[in-house]
Amino acid sequence: MVPEVFVEVVEAYKEKYTITTICECFKIPRSTYYRWKERISAELPLLHQLVIGICQSLSFRVGHRNVRGILKNDYKMMVNRKTVQKIMQKYNLQCQVKVKRKVYIAGESKFVVPNLLKQDFKTDRPNQKWVTDITYLPYGEKMLYLSTIMDLYNNEIMAYKVSDTQDVKLVLDTLEAACKGRETHEVILHSDQGAQYTSYAFQELAKEKGITTSMSRKGNCFDNAVIESFHSSLKSEEFNTQNRVLLTNSIVLEKVESYMYYYNYIRPFSKLNCHSPVEFRTIAA
What we know:
By secondary structure, this protein is α/β, with parallel strands linked by helices. It has helices at residues 3-13, 19-26, 30-43, 46-57, 64-75, 81-90, 168-179, 200-208, 225-239, 249-265, 277-284, and strands at residues 129-137, 144-151, 156-163, 188-191, 212-215.
């Protein structure tokens, strides 16, 4: 067994299995593993150790630009992004790549309510523009549906609900959760033209909360691109590594909850100066 390879295997799987279990599987004593790890760490330059540590702490979910931003914010190290990229490539630390959507041109469409957002995803304060959508979670024993509401100010997920039915109650519960404890009378809430959002119940609840609704053109995914990109990230970063292994529904729910916490509190964003959404909101307050 090559020491470098074994140490890399342990680092990759130690959150899922104990170090003792991994060592026993390879018939390598724990003391030998720690000796190899200490020797390899001592041989690596500091910058390489930091890049590896950052990627491991974020479960290999971010790219070299975000790693470079963390080096700048947390370690006061100014490093060329290409240098960081080469280090990540050397140790195979690249993030999971999102599956790209097929691009198509939407035809003429009819508005249910006006498209107030008009693909202007920029905002200068919280609770000004929210976006919402529903996505499928086909990873468990039965199909689940995830409803999410995001604040475009810092891409923070304000609320989310998971259900085994794609009905109006799912979006009503999500909206109630997002509005709880927040001033919503100047919020624009943008969605697609799904039956849940065009329902009388959803439109009435939004009106009660003082929210102005906005809708994408029919068949145009770009009008709600930010929330759709988030759902794509969740699937590619949290589930597509499973290699189509069937999970229990309870595990699917746990993974969604884990990812939501990671996304809001840990995941760095280039547009937020490599801060997480909650960290950015806290600093700006």
